[in-house]
Amino acid sequence: MHVSLPTMRHPRNPLARALSLLIGVAVIGVLLVFGLVVVSVLLVGGVLLLALRRWKQGSARVNSTTTHASHKPEVLEGEFVVVQRGRPVTH
Contact at 8 Å (CB) between 17 and 10? Predict the structure, then answer.
């Protein structure tokens, strides 16, 4: 099966060539501006989201330190076994 695409003919008229060039450049420019707008919105939104999370964590940290000023950290206790290499481990 052979797929045959139609050939792209360039216009012979110099004015039509210039007009098609200007339209192509305008389309590329619009796409670039649209992409920059999308990227800037995502960047600003991400920075605002991170700032909001940090602000909430900072206020929560201040509240927790003021209410638990005399609170001592808890110690995790447990039994520990030294495992040596080359020996099977039985649980």
Answer: yes
| Cα 34–chain centre separation | 18
CB atoms within 10 A of CB 20: 13
Position 45, amino acid: G
Cα–Cα distance between 12 and 31 in angstroms, integer?
28
* Long-range pairs, 68-76, Cβ under 8 A, ≥24: none
Q: Is the pLDDT of residue 71 over 70?
A: no
What are the CA-CA distances from residue 54 to residues 17, 22, 31, 66, 89 (Å)? 55, 48, 34, 18, 45
Distance CA 4, CA 1 (A): 10
Residue 77 banded pLDDT, cuts 50, 70, 90: confident
The pTM (predicted TM-score) of the whole model is 0.50
